[in-house]
Amino acid sequence: MDSDSDISISDYDEQNLSRSKAKGKGKATDKDKRKKEKAKRKPKDVQAYTWEANFTRSWETVQEDERGSLQGAVDDWMVRGRRKRLLAPQNAIRRTIIRHMVLLIDLSSSMMDRDMRPTRFAVTLQYAREFIIEWFDQNPLGQMAVVGMRAGVGERISDMSGNPQDVLKSISDRHKLEPTGEPSLQNSIEMARNSMNHLPTHSSREILIIFGSLTTCDPGNIHETLDECVKNKIRISIVALAAEMKICRELCDKTGGQFGVAMNEGHFKDLLFEIVPPPAQRGIIPRPATGGTTATAAATTANAAADLMMMGFPTRLPDASPPSLCQRFLCPRCLAKVCDVPTDCDICGLMIVSSPHLARSYHHLFPVKPYTAVASFDAVPDPSATSSCHACSRPFPTTAAPPANVGEGMSAIGRYRCPDCNTDFCSDCDVFVHDVIHCCPGCSK
């Protein structure tokens, strides 16, 4: 026979159990009612999340070849990416080949974050060196300066120079660029703007900012600085490493620059290298005025200032000349000695360039036409005569690619043809011609 204490304990447990079940049923019914009300208010064709509509099974697109290797799929993806870049519009655009850029690097304490390995500061310096080398290679007539942002002020790291070695040397010492304090966009932009006030109108004025902070310590109204940059036709581009800020977006939109937020190290490098090509020159649109002929003449005079400019080709000193301190060229106007070209003469102010530099800047104005992808072997007049690439002599594939791997301007037989000389090239030479040599080996155009 159970004791009275056992009976009371069991009765107490049964009462608590019944109460918890009753509470659970009440909660369940409330949740069901809420779900039904939401389902009534939401349209049936709308999914729960916006990213569900863009979701794709990317791993199913990777297919193994006959030997079970994935190298073919990886190469196919690389070729697709390169062809997508080459198929961009290649129209002749009036570009500013004489560029002046000030590189603003954030040296605040936020650059020591480790969301980019090893730190934002280390990755920024590495990509800045690669950017400077590529920028001077594609813009040999340009000049660049470097300004740091730390401790609430703008610190001049390198003066405006046309020699890439001088700019690289200024950011080589990491100890002098140790991040500290807060950045100041206004002070740094004002320093860069004041250093470009004396530049001629036919050259571009650009500011590239690598910004890793979410705050800026400004002494005044930064919108006044923005208005001055718009007035002086200074183009500001920003690569943010943390997140988008409204003032950064306004700086880029109102000045005609580019803005982007780096999602990872690879995207960070892509955003930087998008600024390497020279920007399109802004044309002066004549406004309809009451004078008619006077307004047209004024617009013609304003446009004529950017059409012609004076340059000088220096004379190289012979090896038998008397030794001097690094003076290797002579200015053609005043015969002053100059160390490196391109540069401006310190005596007469003439812009001194060499003919190879001028020729290397020519491809921005008249780029190579994009090659046409050859669809099938029927489009090849004599396969035996053109069995290899015209540039590298590598043999073309003898079998066509599967239909699933053909698309986005790609060739099924690996041939890409110049529209002027009808010469066939492989995919690697197609990219090399358009990205490096900027001249077709078949027709020299």
TrEMBL record:
<comment type="function">
    <text>Component of the general transcription and DNA repair factor IIH (TFIIH) core complex, which is involved in general and transcription-coupled nucleotide excision repair (NER) of damaged DNA and, when complexed to TFIIK, in RNA transcription by RNA polymerase II.</text>
</comment>
<feature type="compositionally biased region" description="Basic residues">
    <location>
        <begin position="33"/>
        <end position="43"/>
    </location>
</feature>
<dbReference type="InterPro" id="IPR002035">
    <property type="entry name" value="VWF_A"/>
</dbReference>
<dbReference type="InterPro" id="IPR004595">
    <property type="entry name" value="TFIIH_C1-like_dom"/>
</dbReference>
<dbReference type="GO" id="GO:0005675">
    <property type="term" value="C:transcription factor TFIIH holo complex"/>
</dbReference>
<dbReference type="GO" id="GO:0006289">
    <property type="term" value="P:nucleotide-excision repair"/>
</dbReference>
<dbReference type="Pfam" id="PF07975">
    <property type="entry name" value="C1_4"/>
</dbReference>
<dbReference type="GO" id="GO:0008270">
    <property type="term" value="F:zinc ion binding"/>
</dbReference>
<keyword id="KW-0805">Transcription regulation</keyword>
<dbReference type="InterPro" id="IPR007198">
    <property type="entry name" value="Ssl1-like"/>
</dbReference>
<feature type="domain" description="VWFA">
    <location>
        <begin position="100"/>
        <end position="251"/>
    </location>
</feature>
<keyword id="KW-0234">DNA repair</keyword>
<feature type="compositionally biased region" description="Low complexity">
    <location>
        <begin position="1"/>
        <end position="10"/>
    </location>
</feature>
<dbReference type="GO" id="GO:0006351">
    <property type="term" value="P:DNA-templated transcription"/>
</dbReference>
<dbReference type="GO" id="GO:0000439">
    <property type="term" value="C:transcription factor TFIIH core complex"/>
</dbReference>
<dbReference type="InterPro" id="IPR013087">
    <property type="entry name" value="Znf_C2H2_type"/>
</dbReference>
<keyword id="KW-0804">Transcription</keyword>
<feature type="zinc finger region" description="C4-type">
    <location>
        <begin position="331"/>
        <end position="348"/>
    </location>
</feature>
<feature type="region of interest" description="Disordered">
    <location>
        <begin position="1"/>
        <end position="45"/>
    </location>
</feature>
<comment type="similarity">
    <text>Belongs to the GTF2H2 family.</text>
</comment>
<dbReference type="InterPro" id="IPR012170">
    <property type="entry name" value="TFIIH_SSL1/p44"/>
</dbReference>
<dbReference type="Pfam" id="PF04056">
    <property type="entry name" value="Ssl1"/>
</dbReference>
<protein>
    <recommendedName>
        <fullName>General transcription and DNA repair factor IIH</fullName>
    </recommendedName>
</protein>
<keyword id="KW-0539">Nucleus</keyword>
<dbReference type="InterPro" id="IPR036465">
    <property type="entry name" value="vWFA_dom_sf"/>
</dbReference>
<dbReference type="InterPro" id="IPR013083">
    <property type="entry name" value="Znf_RING/FYVE/PHD"/>
</dbReference>
<keyword id="KW-0862">Zinc</keyword>
<keyword id="KW-0863">Zinc-finger</keyword>
<keyword id="KW-0479">Metal-binding</keyword>
<dbReference type="InterPro" id="IPR046349">
    <property type="entry name" value="C1-like_sf"/>
</dbReference>
<keyword id="KW-0227">DNA damage</keyword>
<dbReference type="GO" id="GO:0006357">
    <property type="term" value="P:regulation of transcription by RNA polymerase II"/>
</dbReference>
